[in-house]
Write a structure and sequence with these properties.
This protein has 244 residues and is an alpha/beta fold. It is built from 9 helices and 10 strands. The strands form 2 sheets. A 6-stranded mixed β-sheet has the order 6-7-8-3-9-10, with helices on both faces. The N and C termini lie far apart (47 Å). Bound molecules: adenosine-5'-triphosphate. Keywords: ATP-binding, Nucleotide-binding, Transport.
Length: 244
C-alpha cells in the first residue's frame, strides 16, 4: 500500500519555482530519503507534506486520503508526525514528561491512549530508560534528538517526517538513530527524511529521491542513486571543485 503520495506538486515563491511538478510515492514501511544540493526544494516539499505550505498545484495523499487542504495540526490525527531541524523539546521537563505531554495530545482524538504506558514503552524502545527522569536541557544533543523522535512517535504516526534527523549527532548516535528507524520501518512505520548527511541516507533509507532546482532528478534504491551520474556530479563533482 502507498502510504504517502505526492502528485504533481509545484510551489512558487514569486518568480521562483521551488518545487516543480514533483510526483513521488512512498510505500508503507519504507524509509524514503530526500536529498539534493542547497536550495533544491527539499524543505519546501517537506513543508507541503507537513501542511506548513499549500502547493500552487498538485496534491498530497496520506493512506489514499487527500490531505492537501488539511492544516498541519489536523494531519496529526490522520497519522502524520514530524520532527524539526531545530530541536522542539521541553528543556525544563524530564524526558518522561516530554513523552507524556506528546502522548496526552494523542489522547485528544484517541481516548484509548494510555500516556504513562506510551511514555514507558518509548523510553525502553529508544534506550532512554536511564535518563527518563533527567531534565532534557541537561542532556547531550544526541539524546535530545531521541527525545524529539520519541515525542513524534508518541502520536503513534503512520508517517513520520524527519527534518535533518542526524544534525548534531555523533557518528555513533547517527548509526543508532538509523538502526532505530529501520526497526520502526520493519514494524510498518513509513518515514520520509530530509538530510544533508549522504552516508546516513544511503545506509538508512530503502529509497532515495534527489531534487535539484525543484525538479525530481531521480528516485530509486540507495545503490541506484549512488551510481546515478547526475547524483555523482551534484555531490562528488561539487566536492571536487571545493577541494581544488
Ligand atoms: N519562504 C520563502 N520565500 C521565498 N523563497 C523561498 C522560501 N523558502 C524557500 N525559498 C527558496 O526556494 C528554493 C528552495 O528552498 P528550500 O529551502 O526548499 O531548499 P532546500 O533543498 O531545503 O535547501 P537547503 O538544503 O539549503 O535547506 C530556494 O531557492 C529558496 O531560496
Amino acid at each position: 500500500m502507498t502510504m504517502l503520495e505526492i502528485r504533481k506538486v509545484s510551489v512558487r515563491f514569486g518568480g521562483l519555482t521551488a518545487v516543480d511538478d514533483v510526483s513521488l510515492a512512498v510505500p508503507e514501511g519504507t524509509i524514503m530519503g530526500i536529498i539534493g544540493p542547497n536550495g533544491a526544494g527539499k524543505t519546501t516539499l517537506f513543508n507541503v507534506v507537513a501542511g506548513i505550505l499549500r502547493p500552487r498545484t498538485g496534491s498530497v495523499l496520506l493512506g489514499g486520503e487527500d490531505i492537501t487542504r488539511l492544516p498541519a495540526h489536523r494531519r496529526a490525527r490522520r497519522g502524520l508526525a514530524r520532527t524539526f531541524q531545530r530541536l522542539e523539546v521541553f528543556g525544563t521537563l524530564s524526558v518522561r514528561e516530554n513523552l507524556l505531554v506528546a502522548a496526552e495530545s494523542r489522547r485528544r482524538w484517541d481516548r484509548s491512549t494510555q500516556p504513562a504506558f506510551v511514555a514507558d514503552e518509548l523510553c525502553a524502545e529508544l534506550g532512554l530508560g536511564e535518563v527518563a527522569e533527567s531534565l532534557v536541557d541537561t542532556l547531550p544533543t544526541g539524546t535530545q534528538r531521541l527525545v524529539e523522535l520519541g515525542r513524534a512517535l508518541a502520536l503513534r504516526p503512520r508517517l513520520l517526517l524527519l527534518d535533518e534527523a542526524s544534525s548534531g549527532l555523533t557518528e555513533l548516535e547517527t548509526i543508532q538513530v538509523g538502526e532505530r528507524l529501520q526497526r520502526l520501518a520493519g514494524q510498518g512505520l513509513t518515514v520520509v527524511l530530509v538530510e544533508h548527511d549522504m552516508p546516513f541516507v544511503l545506509s538508512t533509507c530503502g529509497r532515495v529521491a534527489m531534487l535539484d532546482h525543484g525538479v525530481l532528478v531521480t528516485e530509486g534504491t540507495p545503490d541506484e542513486v549512488r551510481n546515478n551520474p547526475v547524483v555523482q556530479e551534484a555531490y562528488l563533482g561539487r566536492n571536487r571543485e571545493a577541494a581544488a
